[in-house]
Amino acid sequence: MKKTYINGVGCISTQKTFDTVFLEDAVYNQNDNILSVVSPVYKDFIAPAAARRMAKGVKNGIVASALAMKDAHAENVDAIITGTGLGCIEDSEKFLKNILDNNEEFLTPTAFIQSTHNTVGAQIALTMQCKGYNFTYVNGAVSFESALLDAKMQLEENEANSILVGGVDENGDYTMELFKLAKRVKQESEQPFTLLAPKTIGSVHGEGASFFVLESEKKDTTYAEILDVQIINTLEENEIETEITTFLKANNVEVSAVDAIVLGFNGDVKFDSYYKRLTENTFSDTPQLYYKHLCGEYDTASAFGLWMASKIIKLQEIPEIVKVNSVKKSAYNTILLYNQLSGKNHSFTLLSK
Amino acid sequence: MKGVAITGMGIISSIGNSVEENFDSLLNENRAITRVQNISTIHADINKVGEIKKTNSELIAELHLPANNNFSRTAMIATFAAKQAVENAGITAINEFRTGLISATSVGGMDMTEKYYYDYFEKPELVKYISCHDGGDVADKIASELGLKGMVTTISTACSSAANSIMLGARLIKSGKLDRVIVGGADALAKFTINGFKTLMILSDDYNKPFDNNRKGLNLGEAAAYLVLESDEIVKKQNKKVLARVSGYGNANDAFHQTASSENGDGAYLAMKKAFEVSGLQPSEIDYINVHGTATPNNDLSEGRAILRIYGDEKVPDFSSTKPFTGHTLAAAAAIEAVYSVLAIQNNVVYPNMNFETPMEEFNLQPQTSLKNKNIDHVLSNSFGFGGNCSTLIFSKSE
Name one GO molecular function term (chain A) (predicted). Predict the structure, then answer.
């Protein structure tokens, strides 16, 4: 069975994650309940005429994938697999509002076309002229991990040698208002938003695009090997420790061999307890890291987590800003990621040097 | 044994609320394309659609959902079909083996979103529907109704979505990652899609006529279908009846245009070619092609050319589109057509391509226009979607 290596990464996020080394300019914004991406210079990647019609998610996806390809020194890939929770939600909003406001008249197709969930993956394929396998997963917090698992299966089974995998989501103004109403996003009045000491439900929302070139060959550009990915729809809080240790055992990794655990803490007082169980018990002596205070919560935020973990293994350093505790290790060779959203759609990802 | 075993099926579409009812309609040419009844739209008098003949209240009652449920119509029909499939496969303990659910949808809970979009702020009792917009919500709902706890995910690649969920399910079983996977897709009709396709000017104001020279476009439909795939170990251990097998699959991207297919059907050709490679079958071994055949000028030309490229000098097998029966059910299309393909194998029939009159001038391809009985060992089913997404599945008789 062939292995899976992360050979290139590209990240557009609410932090400056391009043209930087590793989060040295990161800012922990505790005043806003919705975070927006730090935009790259799009015209360096996309012709301005084309960019004008493109959805935000499409543009960020194209730039993040171009960065990942460049980073991996890759010219083309055999497949493109994308995860997205809501797709290009701004276009969905726009088309729906036009239908409702104009009583189904005077509509144009552009917004409808871009509202289709697989637009980002399709536009990347079109840009790269990649005629290979092209899937898009849309399942809440495991949208990205589904893409990752699919890619890993193809590399293992020798169905492909190189695959571009990414997670992308964008904020839409009206959707954010609805999310506040549904208490998925925290209210403005609740600030400052200190993520690790939550008092209320919901989270600070974000957006972004993180892409990875996965290949079955180890190269000079390699960040880490993906040992395993597991997706579980439903877990009770008291099952999490057993499940995660079973997952490690299946990969012949002891808890003590985990050099860092990257957790999806999002400041939701109701569901961060899943992570707390792990930090207070099984992994109390392990370096614990978090990231959603930097990138915000969104369905594919865990792709930012994977970007961060990949960087840590490659650079062998952990930025202070992402540390939950003060435990240190002499080397960071094995990293475990765990994410869930509202107690559903759990995922474990295991990386090694 | 070649291919992954299919041990159960469930379906709800405009031509029936069960596998049996659907098959009966296919045999008796009961088409169900009518004027829009369940949705308030200004296009109701112009557009014909394939609606499921059950209201939301009826579905809620039949599914025994509590009054405070927040099911979208897509989630209702999806759960309806998935429950049938699980029952048909004789599954009593859903988590007994490593069981997954791979669903597909393009609209998700859009039917509720478009109904309540501006009312949410005034009516607190509607707020529960906000979270059902999410495409993954449909799969979460099915999983929770079935009590399935393991791997659950959703694919959304427009009109090829369910083909891709069947493909992933088959791969998960082949690789030994799961023992049993429920695969399929669902899409309810929505004002959103009716208007979307209308702006693209590919909706017919008449009954759709796949592969006809005078075809004017598609009729939309709504449906849900799920199939149960199981490993040969389970089949052997529980002495299960195998309905048919998923023997080949392929996905490729046309990389030509966001909504239009390339003239030579590159993506379609590559998808079929890959499916043949996976199955180890020769094109000449296919007994029936259930074409995507949406009846848009662009699709049928591109698909026809791709089929001709695959067959070269060989004879193209009997083919038909079942979309004149059901309309184009988007992300569910490949799932309902998978059920029809299995039924074709089980009953040795080729369904008629209704409404066909005049052959296309671009090539010499004529669909089967009447019901035909003949031995069927292998069926090829195509599904293509926006974003150049092209998928092919091959179903085979289980020996």
Answer: 3-oxoacyl-[acyl-carrier-protein] synthase activity
